[in-house]
């Protein structure tokens, strides 16, 4: 675990020096590098997950991006006030995305796994400026491809058995890294490539939890995870 932690800390330090995506748009439509002043006494940039205690997870979830920077700042302001309440802060995040993802993981595993057992990260590791989750706030494709080298490093550190991609852009990142084919749309990809074996792990593409897809159809994809456990 100590060796993995050193590698992850080194990765975060390198991320702090990255500025590839910071000037795509004007000041109102850009990204903020949240790792430039990364506090290693806290070790966690996101309300979603405690990375440093989940480096041995067998399952990695890759979302699109962290969302608005302001939400992260609010979190860290609370955490700096009381560094003993990290788990409570994670539990206080009640977005629809998190609720549904937790539901699909718990239901498909029949209660064997929860979000606490998974390493959660994103294809784009910076946060959005402003308060909006709108896709046109940033250049999703360029940022995804720019960040792919950092995503690869996380995969090499964690060494998951299964990677679950939420939506199209995380899958695009992995396709660019490992050179496997995907279709032009997520729906076609899920239909044609429902399980993609790469190296020592399998990639399972799923719809974003809040996509307008029936829960039964979503659960079918998540159920593919557990045969590899």
Question: What do we call the CATH homologous superfamily?
Answer: Uracil-DNA glycosylase-like domain
Biggest β-sheet: count, sense, barrel? 5 strands, mixed
Percent of residues in β-strands: 5-15%
- The general outline is globular
Please tell me the total number of domains: 1
Low-pLDDT segments: none
Task: Classify the fold: give the CATH topology.
Answer: Uracil-DNA Glycosylase, subunit E
Order of helices and strands: HEEHHHEEHEHHEEH
- Please tell me the overall pLDDT: 84
Counting DSSP H or I runs of 4 or more residues, the number of helices is 8
The number of E-state strands comes to 7
Report how far apart the termini are.
21 Å
Helix share of residues?
A: 40-55%
- Give the strand order, joined by hyphens, for the main sheet: 3-2-5-7-6
Structural class: alpha/beta
CATH 2nd-level architecture: 3-Layer(aba) Sandwich
Our Rg estimate from Cα atoms comes to: 17 Å
Q: Report the CATH C-level class.
A: Alpha Beta
